[in-house]
Amino acid sequence: MNRSSDVIPLPSARRDLAQSYAPNDIELSQATARAQENLLRQQKPDGQWCGELIVDSTLCSDYVVFMHWCGEVDTQLQRRCVRHILKRQLPDGGWNNYHDGPSEINASAKAY
């Protein structure tokens, strides 16, 4: 049961978006233009973008568990996942969850 004295009122009006940022700020405009130019330079002739996607060990670890949980283990895919996981083991014996990151307990526990 809430008493009215316990209720925290919410603001009744949304802050004007024009006050949230300075659209005339020259630095913001220049940074936006540089970002746009960079993206357009990377765009392929057919309109798509292609970039490298590095998967950390946790995705493969989760997928191996998922296959077993579903009772549908693809042994060839499982071997590929295990190779991927072992290839990403760090010198200290652990695993990270982003490129060049330190060992992380969640990623290491999943990999084991």
Which structural traits does this protein have?
4 helices; 46% helix; mainly alpha; 112 residues
Task: Describe the protein's architecture and organization.
The chain is mainly alpha-helical and 112 residues long. The chain has a domain at 57-111. It has 4 helices and no strands. It has helices at 26-42, 57-70, 75-87, 105-111. The two termini are 48 Å apart. 11% of the residues are buried. The mean pLDDT is 85.
Order of helices and strands: HHHH
Envelope shape? extended
Query: What value does the Rg take, in angstroms?
Result: 24 Å
Helix content: 40-55%
Main sheet overview: none
Structural class: mainly alpha
Count of helix runs: 4
Report how far the terminal alpha carbons are from each other.
Answer: 48 Å
Uncertain segments: none
Strand proportion, as a percent range, falls in: under 5%
What is the mean predicted local confidence, pLDDT? 85
Structure summary, number of beta strands: 0
Please outline the helices and strands:
Layout: H1 26-42, H2 57-70, H3 75-87, H4 105-111
Helix pairs in contact: 2-3, 2-4
Summarize the structure.
This protein is mostly helical. The protein is built from four helices and no strands.
